[in-house]
Specification:
- This protein has 197 residues and is mainly alpha-helical.
- The chain has 7 helices and no strands.
- Helix 1 packs antiparallel against helix 4 and helix 4 runs antiparallel to helix 5.
- It is elongated, with a radius of gyration of 25 Å.
């Protein structure tokens, strides 16, 4: 049977992994939401341009058509581009992916919060530990996973966030950009030079 130290270390591991997954799902939620927004703007701009060409005076439609193209030909290009962007929107479902990552973020945030409360208490209540473990398993079962190709970049992003946060605790006036550059130099250039010695 696992002792209290083993249970505490497992709950701490679940809290740390949940924290990292919160960062990963947050980053992916933001990325997919941004991509969906840009695609929506493109479709809206193309559609507006088509409507403008269809309902304005012929003299004005010539000004809305670039490169001295025939207005009907340009209208056809805009229609194809709008149709293509709509198909991309349908196939990629970036809004749906953003929502799925938001839901996973919320579930892992609850697990992280409960695990933190549990670790802060003196005694590890068995029912509370079971509840946290069950919620963690549920989060993994019903939540969308972080794609394999995104896992390491999201982990790096999380570790950088934690390192920057710790650095700012003792250096509140530090520039985030310069601190990130310092960390990059330390981890890529300086560590490589140290290994060559």
């Amino acid at each position: 049977m696992i002792g209290e130290d083993g249970v505490r270390s497992e709950v701490d591991r679940i809290r740390r992994v949940s924290d990292m997954l919160c960062s990963g799902h947050s980053g992916l939620h933001t990325r997919y939401l941004y991509q969906a927004f840009l695609l929506d703007i493109c479709i809206l701009a193309l559609s507006t341009w088509m409507v403008a060409l269809a309902f304005v005076e012929p003299a004005l439609s010539l000004k809305l058509t670039p490169l001295d193209l025939d207005t009907r030909l340009w209208l056809g290009f805009l229609s194809i581009a709008t149709f293509f962007a709509t198909i991309v929107q349908f196939k990629t479902d970036w809004k749906g992916k953003a929502d799925a990552h938001k839901r996973s973020l919320q579930i892992y945030a609850e697990v992280k919060r409960e695990a933190g409360y549990l670790l802060a208490s003196r005694d590890l209540d068995k029912d509370s530990v079971r509840r946290v473990l069950a919620r963690y398993d549920l989060a993994a079962a019903v939540g969308i996973p972080v794609p394999e190709g995104d896992f390491l970049p999201q982990k790096r992003r999380h570790k950088m966030k934690v390192a920057l946060s710790r650095h700012l605790d003792s250096h509140p006036g530090a520039s985030l950009w310069l601190t990130q550059l310092k960390f990059w130099w330390r981890d890529n250039v300086k560590s490589g030079a140290d290994n060559e010695r």
